[in-house]
TrEMBL record:
Residues in ABC transporter domain copies: 8-239
Record's keyword annotation contains Metal-binding: no
Name of the protein: Iron(III) transport system ATP-binding protein
Organism, as annotated: Roseovarius azorensis
Pfam families per record: ABC_tran, TOBE_2
GO BP term (any one): quaternary ammonium group transport
Cross-referenced InterPro entries: AAA+_ATPase, ABC_SmlMolc_Importer, ABC_transporter-like_ATP-bd, ABC_transporter-like_CS, ABC_transpr_FbpC, Mo/tungstate-bd_C_term_dom, P-loop_NTPase, Transp-assoc_OB_typ2
Recorded GO CC terms: ATP-binding cassette (ABC) transporter complex
Keywords, comma-separated and alphabetical: ATP-binding, Cell inner membrane, Cell membrane, Ion transport, Iron, Iron transport, Membrane, Nucleotide-binding, Translocase, Transport
Transcription regulation keyword on record: no
Highest rank taxon of the organism: Bacteria
Length: 364
């Protein structure tokens, strides 16, 4: 069986500004019909990467391939308009002197009837069917953004580069437009590279996430893998609040008030951080001073007193001050659980839910 080849592939892309590495040896590929999310904090080099793929900016080194054909290296360069790449950028601009329908139809060739049918179809799908004859200055920011989306989708690009394309839309509208846009792109087997700094958006949309930091991709994989097998403490923290418990390794084990944790391959004397998300801390009652009643999976309970408890809507967030060292740990509990401040409770950490990293280690 022949394996499908990537629609878009970039190899070792690098870009410096004033001697500073802003994109550092980035490689990734996107298959037709697939969504890859470049996810990372502000300033990590996401937009610069997209601009190089689009061809509006030159890389210092590295190559870009479309359907296996070289599009750009440091010598050879296909101009942006001949790359057949659709763009939806952060700073999208509609043509001010053209109507909504003319904006969307701008890049379309073919006969008039087919063109106008495509324009109407797309505008309806993004909820802008009523504004065919309006002009950009008559629209709100979010409405303009939807027209820009329709314009980018119209020529059925083989590759779509999207830079925070839904950022100007309110939450309720965003979910609908996002799903609709993905449906349209998947129908035409487009390869999608989407930039976002929001983990929820990436988890919701991506087949694959490329987690970016300081110009580099630190981890790449299915959302499930990135969330459940993060490469370092920062990768855990990018997706949720975290708790960190410190310990020192002796014989591949770290002893803590919560019992022993495995630290395979970590040398003796090395400090490690045991990282656990608030939803994976288990709480047990004090039973009038008789203590908790853990199952074999729960590990050793450690006692703390409630410092603060807040109801967050679908869950409650409880903060504890721990007896053993006075540190604060956070736990979330589904629904309503609002114990009084000062109440003693016991916390447990499941071995299979925590991540153990050498202290201070960051994937480079
Ligand atoms: N033309 C330029 N000249 C100099 N520095 C630049 C230029 N463009 C971007 N940078 C710098 O490169 C770094 C990466 O910028 P980039 O726009 O790629 O970040 P980003 O990940 O898209 O961030 P955001 O989420 O805020 O959009 C930033 O520190 C930025 O200041
Ligand atoms: Mg950006």
């Amino acid at each position: 069986m022949q394996t499908q080849s990537p629609r878009l592939e970039i190899r070792n892309l690098t870009r410096r500004y004033d001697g500073r590495l802003v994109v550092d040896d980035v490689s990734l590929s996107v298959m037709p019909g697939q969504v890859t999310c470049l996810l990372g904090p502000s300033g990590c080099g996401k937009s610069t990467t997209l601009r190089m793929i689009a061809g509006v900016e030159m890389q210092d080194s590295g190559e870009i391939y479309v359907d296996g054909r070289l599009v750009c290296d440091t010598v050879f360069r296909v101009p942006p308009e001949r790359r057949h790449i659709g763009l939806m950028f952060q700073d999208f601009a509609l043509f001010p002197h053209l109507s909504v329908a003319q904006n969307v139809g701008f890049g379309l060739s073919g006969d008039r009837t087919a063109k106008s049918a495509r324009v109407v179809e797309l505008l309806e799908r993004v909820g802008m069917g009523r504004y065919l004859n309006a002009y950009p200055h008559e629209l709100s920011g979010g409405e303009q953004q939807r027209v820009a989306l329709a314009r980018a989708l119209a020529p059925r690009p083989g590759i779509m580069l999207m830079d925070e394309p839904f950022s100007g839309l309110d939450n309720r509208l965003r979910d609908g437009i996002r799903d609709e846009t993905l449906d349209i792109l998947r129908e035409q087997d487009t390869a999608i590279l989407l930039v976002t700094h929001e983990p929820e958006e990436a988890m919701r949309m991506a087949d694959e996430i490329a987690l970016m930091r300081d110009g580099r991709i630190v981890q790449q994989g299915a959302p499930y893998n990135i969330y459940n097998a993060p490469v370092d403490r920062s990768a855990v923290a990018f997706f949720s609040d975290i708790n960190v418990i410190r310990g020192t390794v002796r014989g591949a084990l770290t002893e803590t008030p919560f019992g022993h944790f495995l630290a395979p391959g970590v040398p003796d004397g090395q400090e490690v951080e045991i990282v656990i998300r608030p939803q994976h801390i288990k709480i047990d009652f004090d039973r009038n001073g008789r203590g908790p009643n853990p199952t074999s999976q729960d590990g050793t309970p450690a006692r703390g007193v409630v410092e603060r408890a807040r109801f967050m809507g679908s869950e409650s967030l409880v903060e504890f001050r721990m007896d053993h060292d006075g540190s604060v740990l956070k736990a979330t509990v589904p629904n309503v659980f609002l114990p009084k401040p000062g109440k003693p409770l016991w916390l447990m950490i499941r071995r299979d839910r925590c991540f153990v990293f050498p202290a201070g280690a960051r994937r480079r």
